[in-house]
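Minutes, structural biology subgroup

Action item carried over from last meeting: produce the structure token record for Phosphatidylglycerophosphatase A (Oenococcus oeni). EB confirmed the sequence was re-checked against the source entry. Recorded below for completeness.
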Amino acid sequence: MSDYSKLAQDSIKRLLKRGVSLNDIYKLTSDFLLQHYHFSAKNEQIVKALSIVLKRDEVNDIILTALYMDEAAETMPDSEPLKGRLSRDANGHNVDEILAIGLASQFGAAATVHYGWLDNEKPGLIGVLNDKTDSINVYIDDILAALVASSAMEYLELDGGNKY
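Output recorded by EB:
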């Protein structure tokens, strides 16, 4: 983790605190590439792709903002109108999707489209986080989906471009 800036290290630690490890992102990215591009991804290249994603300050700003929102919602008084909306991940809130699209769009239109698929289908840990009832996870599932989509597109770039 020493290859990462302090900002990126903080993002990684906060993701881990919320239940998402780098290995989780690697696995979801590998599964996504296999399902959508029909090949087994090389682990070392997935690691490199995610590293490229996490080295952007703008990505880490979005991650930290999103995780802060989930954490703040958990400690917010029940009398706060936003608390009720976040507690049930209310339709129409959409700030979580806006942040995730902001993250994915830095890696191209395909990353944004793939984020949308991942957000809709919620495979693996994305769905587990979305369905948790013992904590507020409005933002983290979307951020995870955006990280997977962005890492997958960076993987394809490292592999010589999206020729699939």
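Discussion: The first helix runs from residue 6 to 17.
Next step: EB to file the record with the rest of the batch.
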